[in-house]
Structure formats: C-alpha cells, structure tokens
C-alpha cells in the first residue's frame, strides 16, 4: 500500500470515547496494537464525552473493557498499565457549552500528529468539525475518522459529508466500514488478483450466482434507540454488504493504490440495476424477529427490546436480489442477506459455479453443493472450495462433493488481528485504501434509498420470524423462485 508510513507520535482524540463502540472495539483494539508493539511510544488517546469522567475513571472503565474482550486472552499487567497511562479524558459538550473546546486545545500537543475519531451519533459530526476548526485544532495534516452510518439517506449523507468536508479535505477523511478491516475480506482481493486460476472463471460464463450473507445470533442489545431509526438495510446492507459485493464484483485495479481500488468499487455501485416498482416486492424481503430460542436461551422479540416503541416496522432482516448491469456480470444474481437473532451466525461470500456444459457421468449432473467457493469471514475464517470427487469403491460410479479447506487458523500461526486493529493502524500510518470515498457512500445510498422509500410507501410490514430460526419465509421464497437455495440448505446426498 503505497501511502503507508511508519506510525508517528499521535494524539488520537476519540469523540464518543466512553460509548459502546469505544469500549467494545476501539480501546481494546488499541490495547492489542500497543501490546504487539505497533503504537509509537509518544502516542496518546484522549477520550471526549459530556460526562465529566476523571482520567482515573476512564482508565478503570477501559481496563474492564480490555479484560472482557474476547481477543485479549491473557492481560499482561505491565502492558495494560503502559496502555492506560496513554489515556486521558476531556469533557466537551458538542453543541452545548463551548468551554470544552479550550480544554481540549490545552490537552493537545502541537508536536504530535492529530487524529480525530468521531465515534458519536452522525448528526453531531458537523458540529464537532466546526468546533475543531473554531478552536484552531484541525491543523494541516490532521485526519478525521467517521463511523457508519454516514447519514440515513443520500440527502443527509451529503449534508454530513459537506459539513465535515468544509473543514477536512477528502484526503484527510477516513470513512470506516469495519468489514473492510476483516482479514478474509482483504484476502478476497489476494485470492482474486494474486492467483491466476480464478479470474478467468470470475464472470457470468462460469458463475451461476453469488450469495453474500452476514447473519447474527445477537439481537439489538442496548442499541434499540439507534436501531429503530436505522434497520438492517441502513445498518448492514448500505455499507458492509455492498462493500463485500464491490470487492467480489470489481474489475482488477491497475495497482493496489487507494484511488485505483476505490475507482473500481465505485463502478460496481454505479452499475447496480435500480430496484424499483414491482421489482421491490419481487426482489426484496424483510423481517423482524419475534420471541424465540437462540442456542437454547429464550429471548425477547424485537418489539419487547428496551429503549424503543412497542410498535415498529423496523426490519431486523433483509434479503435482496441485486444485479450488476455490466459485461462481466449480466444475468448473474447477487443474493444479499443479513439479519439479527437467527439460529446461526455466519458471514460469508458464496460463489456458486455453473454446472459442466456436458456431463459424462450419467445420473450425477445435479449433485447439490458441488462447485461452490466459500469465502468465510466468520466464524472460522477461511476459504472452502467444494469439488466433485469419485467415491472410492468398485461398484457403480458415484460422485460426491468434497471440501478443499483453507483454515486461516490452522494454516498461519499468527493471530488474525481484529478489524479495528487493522483500520486504526491504517489511520495512524495515513493509508486510506480500506476506507470509503465520499462518492462510494453516496452511490450506495442512491441504490438503497428507493427500496426503503418503496417499503415505506406500502402498507406492508416486515414479516415476523421466530428468534433462532433461519429468518423470514420471504427470504427463502426470494431465492427459491429461481430453483436456488441458500448455501447452508444444500444437503449433499
Ligand atoms: N456500537 C457499535 O457496535 C457500532 C457503532 N457504530 C457507530 O459509532 C457511533 C457511536 O456509537 P455507540 O458507541 O454505539 O454510541 P453510544 O451512544 O454508546 O456512545 C456515544 C458516545 O458519544 C458521546 N456523545 C454523544 N453526544 C455527545 C455530545 N453532544 N458531545 C460530546 N459527546 C457526545 C457519548 O458520551 P456522553 O453521552 O457521555 O456525552 C458517548 O461517549 C455511531 O455513529 C454508531 O452508529 C458503528 C458500528 C458499530
Ligand atoms: O456495523 C455493525 O456491525 C455489527 C456486526 O459486525 P460483526 O463484525 O460482528 O459482523 C452489527 O451487529 C451492528 O448492528 C452494525 O452496526
């Protein structure tokens, strides 16, 4: 990645540094980077919120968060102490009492690089940037990191981008999509563009369809308030799933350079056929979880989750059929699916190859599950290719799908970093290849907005599915109409 440089002493200011994202993901990831020797000795983390925490309070809260993080198996007390010493808290009430900006200015060191991470509700991003500018803190070279969702539709996304762009030029804006920091997602590019054998098959001639799935067993947890204004379409499809689709479908970029990669992703988004009119009913399905049992535990339905209204049309599951109208992909459906509180959590991209043009093995031409390449993000990161092989034996010839497995855990002895570790490191070293450019985000909203508008303009509501199930029936009907099935439903015979 051409833009990368060594980490330098940096003041990393995290607005929303006491919130859920910071405690669950950002601070534990920074601890892991520090533990593994990737943070410069002079780097400090300044958490900003309105709640008047002392530095000691923040360090206690962070210590618990680090200890509770699944990737931190053993806490090394000296490393933790060194990391906690980097932390301090400053109270700034964005949009309220302006005195906090002077306190923040006093906490920053003019000799260090500056990164401002906006882990806050997106509607205050503009106020933060104006506050930074007013206090003279958005110095040349300083960078800003924005969390998703970037707006709730194209118009609001443009407004947020304009407000942030008025203070920071595009080169200094890092729009996070944490799926791009996942190891397997980056490996998808390597798989496609560093190996010679796949690319000739990577088109409508040889691929029947693609499935992109990101399902979770968890519900909305403590985020019902946020989720009720979002839903699965804005929370997952507009960003994570469409980014996965872009990396799967894009043309080979001329180099692994940030603009070259982003240019190719943008072309995919611009080639998505709009889903409008009757196609909304045909090509989309949405659901909302009801009560049920997930992994043996009885759980609430969405409407009973605390922090939101007892009646809501918010979708917690979406399935879609997308088409990319270009030479490579014409006629190949891309099925996208995401949902909360289903029976099994899986994030994966499944490439389903076509059958051979002519079979010489009678009776074996439709063996289910054959000819799939699965790029699995989680759990058990890896790449799995299913091929047909002959079952040993002297009797009648029988073919069976057999797996060729590449498990990252078994193959590489090194730990796969958390997505946020990778992305935070990239921000600190000034590499924005794995971040979204403004035009990409806006192209994604341009495709998603009409679908949400169509849902809102009908009197249909999301179909209830029991927690712990495989999602709404509509998702199965959507793919089943063409005689296909979701990957996990294929039972090899
Ligand atoms: N949580 C997650 O898993 C994910 C979150 N995100 C995104 O990250 C962002 C933060 O989410 P999350 O951490 O869940 O939200 P939380 O509500 O848990 O935290 C919000 C943080 O922002 C601070 N804050 C809110 N308003 C102000 C204000 N006016 N001035 C100063 N500080 C303020 C809060 O502190 P206080 O109230 O004490 O001032 C708190 O630290 C959102 O954009 C979300 O969509 C993205 C991906 C995943
Ligand atoms: O951005 C989000 O992602 C998480 C899922 O992330 P994962 O890395 O655990 O797959 C999702 O739970 C959350 O609702 C969404 O905001």
Automatic annotation (TrEMBL):
Does NADP appear among the keywords? yes
| Assigned EC number | 1.1.1.49
Which residues of this UniProt protein bind substrate?
Answer: 178, 182, 216, 235, 340
Q: Which residues form the active site?
A: 240 (proton acceptor)
Annotated Glucose-6-phosphate dehydrogenase C-terminal domain ranges read: 189-487
Specify the pathway: Carbohydrate degradation; pentose phosphate pathway; D-ribulose 5-phosphate from D-glucose 6-phosphate (oxidative stage): step 1/3
UniProt keyword terms in alphabetical order: Carbohydrate metabolism, Glucose metabolism, NADP, Oxidoreductase
Q: Which residues form the Glucose-6-phosphate dehydrogenase NAD-binding domain?
A: 13-187
Q: Tell me the Pfam families matching this sequence.
A: G6PD_C, G6PD_N
Q: Name one GO molecular function term.
A: glucose-6-phosphate dehydrogenase activity
Binding residues for NADP(+), per the UniProt record?
50, 93-94, 148
Q: Which domain of life is it from?
A: Bacteria
- Catalytic activity as recorded in UniProt: D-glucose 6-phosphate + NADP(+) = 6-phospho-D-glucono-1,5-lactone + NADPH + H(+)
Its function, per the record, reads: Catalyzes the oxidation of glucose 6-phosphate to 6-phosphogluconolactone.
Q: Member of which family?
A: Belongs to the glucose-6-phosphate dehydrogenase family.
**Under what name is this protein listed?**
Glucose-6-phosphate 1-dehydrogenase
Organism for this UniProt entry: Nocardiopsis tropica
């Amino acid at each position: 990645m051409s833009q990368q440089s060594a980490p330098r002493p940096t003041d990393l200011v995290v607005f929303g540094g006491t919130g859920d994202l910071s405690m669950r993901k950002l601070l534990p990831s920074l601890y892991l980077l520090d533990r593994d020797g990737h943070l410069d000795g002079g780097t400090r983390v300044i958490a900003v919120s309105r709640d008047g925490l002392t530095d000691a309070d923040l360090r206690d809260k962070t210590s618990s968060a680090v200890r509770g993080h699944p990737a931190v198996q053993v806490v090394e007390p000296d490393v933790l102490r060194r990391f906690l010493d980097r932390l301090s808290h400053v109270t700034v009430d964005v949009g309220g009492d302006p005195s906090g900006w002077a306190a923040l200015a006093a906490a920053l060191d003019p000799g260090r690089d500056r990164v401002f991470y906006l882990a806050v509700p997106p509607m205050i991003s503009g106020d933060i940037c104006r506050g930074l500018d007013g206090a003279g803190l958005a110095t040349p070279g300083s960078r800003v990191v924005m969390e998703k969702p970037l707006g709730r539709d194209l118009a609001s996304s443009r407004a947020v981008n304009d407000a942030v762009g008025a203070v920071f030029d595009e080169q200094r804006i890092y729009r996070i999509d944490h799926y791009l920091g996942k190891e397997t997602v980056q490996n998808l590019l390597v798989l496609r563009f560093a190996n010679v054998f796949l690319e000739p098959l990577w088109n409508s001639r040889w691929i029947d369809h693609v499935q992109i799935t990101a399902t979770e067993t968890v519900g909305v947890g403590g985020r019902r308030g946020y989720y009720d204004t979002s839903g699965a379409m804005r929370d997952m499809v507009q960003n994570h799933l469409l980014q996965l689709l872009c990396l799967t479908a894009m043309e080979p970029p001329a180099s692994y350079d940030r603009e070259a990669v982003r240019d190719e992703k943008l072309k995919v988004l611009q080639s998505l056929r709009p889903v409008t009119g009757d196609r909304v009913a045909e090509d989309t399905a949405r659901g909302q979880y009801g009560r049920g049992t997930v992994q043996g535990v009885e759980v609430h339905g969405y409407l009973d989750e605390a922090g939101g209204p007892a009646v809501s049309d918010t979708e917690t599951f979406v399935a879609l059929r997308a088409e990319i109208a270009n030479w490579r992909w014409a006629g190949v459906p891309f099925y996208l699916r995401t949902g909360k509180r289903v029976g099994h959590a899986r994030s994966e991209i499944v490439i389903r190859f076509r059958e051979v043009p002519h079979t010489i093995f009678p009776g074996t031409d439709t063996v289910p599950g054959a000819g799939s390449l699965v790029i699995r993000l989680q759990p058990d990161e890896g790449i799995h290719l299913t091929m047909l092989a002959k079952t040993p034996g002297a009797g009648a010839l029988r073919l069976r799908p057999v797996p060729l497995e590449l498990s990252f855990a078994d193959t590489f002895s090194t730990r796969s970093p958390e997505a946020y570790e990778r992305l935070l490191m990239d921000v600190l070293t000034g590499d924005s290849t794995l971040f979204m450019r403004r035009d990409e985000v806006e192209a994604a909203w341009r495709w998603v907005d009409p679908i949400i508008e169509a849902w809102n303009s009908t009197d249909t509501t999301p179909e209830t599915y029991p927690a712990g199930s495989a999602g709404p029936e509509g998702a199965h009907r959507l793919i089943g109409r063409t005689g296909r099935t979701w990957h996990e439903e294929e039972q090899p015979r």
